[in-house]
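Input sequence (223 aa), recorded before submission:
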Amino acid sequence: MIRPVHIALAGAAAMAVAACTTTDPYTGQVVRDNTRTGVLAGAAGGALLGYLTNTNKGEQGRKNALIGAGVGALAGGAVGNYMDRQQAQLRAQLAGSGVDVQRQGDNIILNMPSDVTFAVDQADIQSRFYPVLDELAQTLNQYPQTTIDVIGHADSTGADAYNQALSERRASSVASYLVSRGVLRDRLYVAGRGESQPIASNDTEAGRAQNRRVEVILRPLTG
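Predicted structure, token format:
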């Protein structure tokens, strides 16, 4: 089953660890990090940031929301050039991070293997991956005329229902972090697809490792 998820704040849990701070990578200032605080609170309480069933009214509804927020749509030859520049910047920023940057037509697909982003059987983002997501958020904010799908996937080990829930929590963690870094919430569609869309054989450990992933799909906003 494919079940989309929508991000909600876990305010009470975050308050329990309100003293968490981080160093802003762009200013060097020590500031409170609300997302990392929320993730830590979620881990302590046995849950991540909450998520609810997505009530988004479909792709057109997302486009309308963005246009209403003042994000203009791309048209004609501007689309390819816009995505080319965004792809080039992402490749440069994410080089050596373990994140694979692919292009399919006008769409950009970022493949984040779970061994880079998450510990085994966990949905808390590994702290060493924060700088990578900070770089990604910076580029996403520089190129606002794209929609962002964050899709979690799992291998076939374990029960289908468990894998589905894990894929949702991982996608929600990545999306929540991006929102905390200024990415407009209306751009996001968040979903978990469990073990339903493998990209390699689940019969080998190497194949299962490829299937455990979070994909971020960037699509140009067109009229």
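Checked by second reader. Confidence is low (pLDDT under 50) at residues 6-56.
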